[in-house]
User: Which sequence fits this backbone?
């Protein structure tokens, strides 16, 4: 198949690459599978992750809309843009017809597996019309292959006023979260509230959810606004952009450097001087530059700007990734532990943003720039022993919400990602019991990888993601914690 995204990896290559922990590797063997099934233990599968050489979806995608009357059709709502995009990507599309509502019996070759389902419910305005969703989706879900994607498109309830209409669209959030918990074998459900969004923005967001970039994003809803997406190179969407990543020497930061560079950006890695050697290794791998800097230095923002201007001529993307934990129950929390975490995770982010966005320095952060902050699931749900960390990460969510409207007129967007359990040195240091609980208590029954966070950040950094502003996107495999 002459797909622009190239050839596929063999499924067994993928499995070896992507099992994230020793238990997952054990369960991937025939014997391990059988034992886990018998004992009712989690059976995580290798997730389908993005590779430049990989197809968006291996199997056909069922694309349909449910109209105000509850009837299914092949092209209502936002579907024309989605269909155009899938056609461009040479993804086989299945339209709703009598066959669609057939259940796939074992060995039935006439109802092939589906790689995904895209259902537009944006014109549904009554609870009765939602019955059309059930009629179409129930048999189609039975046909989903492992690692399939379900993507729903709705209208943001905040854009509606009539209680019946608001209720009908809010209902989609319940469907997404419940279906996400029912799917197995790496399959996910996500939604986009599209409202007045420009067609290309809807198509970009649906493509993200269908792709391996969103492997560990599950049960989430992205709201997109009416901003016009900026043009981008399809293969390398960050071409010509200069990106700064803090905390780049290892873990999630190092993965972000790699993915942004793969997508075309010139990357500046920032980390504390003590991490200089590993920082140099990470940035040298992608022909980027290193800036040894403690981000709590009061001149950090200015140093970042000076470095980017002098070495790369400007700054377009800022990823506030550096973060620390100093866990203790509040009764044992020292002033030092409290202050360190608040200073690195929140104070430094605020101060750097103030410098980069200062009206007196408009040559600083470019118009149309992207700021992406690392929050955390624990900033949403809280965690025992983490009053300091959760305060800092909840604070990040507040700063994103407050900053987004202030920078929108310059085409700048600011968003946060909230990772759940990601396999890094930070989580490897956790005691065994909470570590294993964090890993398994999610719909995908495994921890995510740093690359999962990096892929979502790279998507938010794209020029085409202009319509996503002030959002918090969880990357947690639909963790039960704080859901
Ligand atoms: N690992 C997870 O499961 C998880 C979950 C939710 C959120 N996060 C967040 O993701 C981010 C990255 O996490 P990680 O697991 O890769 O952490 P990590 O500890 O592996 O790496 C953090 C990096 O930040 C650097 N850093 C720390 N303080 C700094 C400072 N003052 N100035 C400059 N650099 C500094 C460190 O040297 C290190 O290289 C953090 O903000 C973290 O809170 C991680």
Assistant:
């Amino acid at each position: 198949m002459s797909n622009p995204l190239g050839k596929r990896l063999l499924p067994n290559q993928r499995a070896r690459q992507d099992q994230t922990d020793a238990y997952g590797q054990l369960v991937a063997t025939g014997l391990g599978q059988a034992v886990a099934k018998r004992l009712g233990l989690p059976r995580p599968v290798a997730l389908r992750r993005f590779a430049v050489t990989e197809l968006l979806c291996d199997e056909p995608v069922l694309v349909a809309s449910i109209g105000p009357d509850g009837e299914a059709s092949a092209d209502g709502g936002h579907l024309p843009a989605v269909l155009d995009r899938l056609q461009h990507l040479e993804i086989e599309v299945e339209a709703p017809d009598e066959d669609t509502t057939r259940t796939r019996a074992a060995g039935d070759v006439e109802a092939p597996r589906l790689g995904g389902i895209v259902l537009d419910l944006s014109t549904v305005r009554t609870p009765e019309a939602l019955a059309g969703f059930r009629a179409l989706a129930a048999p189609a879900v039975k046909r989903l292959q492992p690692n399939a994607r379900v993507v729903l498109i709705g209208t943001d309830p905040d854009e509606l006023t009539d209680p019946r209409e608001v209720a009908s669209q809010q209902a989609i959030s319940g469907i997404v979260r419940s279906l996400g918990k029912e799917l197995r074998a790496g399959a996910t459900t996500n939604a986009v509230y599209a409202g007045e969004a420009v067609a290309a923005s809807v198509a970009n967001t649906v493509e993200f959810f269908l792709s391996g970039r969103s492997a560990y994003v599950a049960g989430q809803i992205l709201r997109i606004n009416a901003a016009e997406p900026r043009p981008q190179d399809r293969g390398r969407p960050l071409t010509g952009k200069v990106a700064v990543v803090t905390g780049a020497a290892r873990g999630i930061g190092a993965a972000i450097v790699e993915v942004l560079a793969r997508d075309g950006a010139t990357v500046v890695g920032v980390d504390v001087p003590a991490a200089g050697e590993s920082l140099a290794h990470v940035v040298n791998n992608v022909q980027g530059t290193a800036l040894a800097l403690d981000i709590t230095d009061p001149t950090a923002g200015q140093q970042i700007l000076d470095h980017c201007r002098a070495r790369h001529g400007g700054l377009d993307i800022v990823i506030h990734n550096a973060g620390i934990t100093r866990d203790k129950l509040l009764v044992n929390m020292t002033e030092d532990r409290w202050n360190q975490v608040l200073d690195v995770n929140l104070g430094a982010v605020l101060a750097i943003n103030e410098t980069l966005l200062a009206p007196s320095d408009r040559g600083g952060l470019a118009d149309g720039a992207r700021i992406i902050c690392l929050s955390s699931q624990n900033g949403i749900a809280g965690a025992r022993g983490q009053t300091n960390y959760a305060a800092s990460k909840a604070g990040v969510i507040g700063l994103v919400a407050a900053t987004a409207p202030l920078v929108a007129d310059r085409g700048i967007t600011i968003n946060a990602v909230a990772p759940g359990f990601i396999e890094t040195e930070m989580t490897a240091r956790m005691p065994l019991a909470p570590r294993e609980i964090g890993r398994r208590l999610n719909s995908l029954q495994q921890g995510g990888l740093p690359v999962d966070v990096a892929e979502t950040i790279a998507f938010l950094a794209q020029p085409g993601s202009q319509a996503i502003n002030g959002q918090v996107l969880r990357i947690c495999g639909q963790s039960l914690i704080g859901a």
Notes: The two ends are 40 Å apart (CA to CA).
